[in-house]
Amino acid sequence: MGTSQTKAYRLLSRGSKGEAGRIAAVLREETVGGALLLVAAVAGLVWANSPWSDAYHAVRAFEFGPATLHLRLNTAAWAADGLLAIFFFVAGLELKREFIAGDLRRPRQAAVPVAAALGGVIVPAVIYLSLTMGTSTAKGWAIPTATDIAFALAVLAVAGRHLPSALRAFLLALAVVDDLVAIVIIAVFYTTHLTAPALLAALLPLAAFAVLVRRGVRAWWLLIPLAVATWALVHASGVHATVAGVLLAFAVPVRRAGAPASGSPTGGVTDLAGHFEHRFRPVSASVAVPVFAFLSAGVTLGGLDGVATALGDPVAIGVAAGLVIGKPVGVMAATWLVARFTRAELDAGLAWIDVLGLSVLAGMGFTVSLLIGELAFGAGTAAGRHVTIAVLAGSLTAAVLASVILRLRGRAYRRVRQAEEAEEAEEAEPGPAG
After folding, report:
1. What protein family does this chain belong to (predicted)?
2. Are the C-beta atoms of residues 179 and 88 closer than 8 Å to each other?
3. Does residue 254 belong to any structural domain of this protein?
4. Is position 298 within any domain?
5. What stretches in the chain show pLDDT beneath 50?
6. How many structural domains is the chain composed of?
7. pLDDT, position 350
């Protein structure tokens, strides 16, 4: 009597060839962006602690822009509200492409990074709240829940050059879902006041933008004014303006893999989501995020005593512990639970230590963590300064720990690959002449 055997579901399996190529291109751009982000953050931190710190704070506080629609903002606010809208626009495009045209359109494959991202949000938030519950600082619970995609991918590019591509794709997907969760948290929990007429008015340029892109229109002189109008009205409504970036991204059509190129009833239009992502990702990675980092990382440390005082604050402890401990525990536990309840197995050649390395790397919160810190406590406040120091310390610790794990695993994968290549070369050699 024969036995039926179902094929085991594989966690972190290698994606399709086309998707792997696209992810490789994204990783290259984000790696460059991560390097620029690091340089910008260090520059801001050094300037803010130099004898010329007054000039740095003057740059941050310089106001410009029209007073209408509450757009008379200082430089730091323009970076957080304006430039980061570009970052979230690109993140929204990436998310939509992943779930409509990418490998994550399959529910089974999407379950792993989605669960990992949610676990990486819940556990850090619980750790933070356990240290601040009952105080006014509990409102910062979302600060350690974010993963900085640029920083994380930059570290992965350096420390994990020999890791399988499936692990890189997993980290990218996790970070993209993490960004979506972050923008939902910002919209729901960090909207202090809501002006309904402005929010309803934002639907008009957003709808016009959606109609045009659905018809395949690429003309910047039509689309950019509509996007700016949507952003300005969302900003005036009290909802954080970065939400506009995600809404605009979700309005852009995505062509499924293998589908005919079309973006309108008449057809003949290429994938607009890919076109916009190609145009705006360099702007996001090379300009928007580094400028924000430069203007946000410049916290006055006050020497070793000042750092020690800041890191002794329950707020800072909660943020750092959430990033260094909560993120790895949450991501790892969620991934293991998916495997446990779906009876899945890691793809051939992978090990749980690989997942641990990526889980630790997910603790590199920077861009969105700093943004939520400013929303929760305000820029320039004592709590805000402590949050910045904790985010920097926690992210640096996560980067070092993850680099150690990933380098060790990278060496192991390199030895395996070298052995396989030597074996293939030996088999390819012609035998002795008879």
Report:
1. Belongs to the NhaA Na(+)/H(+) (TC 2.A.33) antiporter family.
2. yes
3. no
4. yes
5. 1-6, 261-269, 434
6. 1
7. 78
Q: CA–CA separation, 54 vs 378, rounded Å?
A: 19
- What is the pLDDT at residue 269? 41
Q: Residue 82's pLDDT is what?
A: 93
Nearest Cα neighbor of 272 from 218, 209, 206 is 218
Per the listing, tokens 């972190």 go with: 12
**pTM higher than the cut 0.70:** yes
Angle subtended at Cα 403 by Cα 367 and Cα 414, rounded to the nearest 5 degrees: 130
The reported pLDDT for the residue numbered 141 is 96
Give the residue carrying structure tokens 């400013």: 374
Q: CA 250 to CA 241: how far, in whole Å? A: 15
Please give the structure tokens belonging to residue 108. Answer: 């089974």
For residue 405, the model assigns a pLDDT of: 92
Answer yes or no: is 49 within a domain: yes
Opening angle at CA 288, ends 146 and 319, nearest 5: 25
* Contact between 154 and 31 (Cβ < 8 Å): yes
Q: Identify the pLDDT of residue 177.
A: 87
What is the per-residue pLDDT for 170? Answer: 83
CA distance 399 to 405: 10
Assign residue 126 the CATH number of its domain: 1.20.1530.10
Q: What is the pLDDT of residue 430?
A: 65
419 burial via Cβ count (<10 Å: 0-12, 13-18, 19+): exposed
Residue 433 lies in a domain: no
* Cβ atoms 149, 33 nearer than 8 A: no
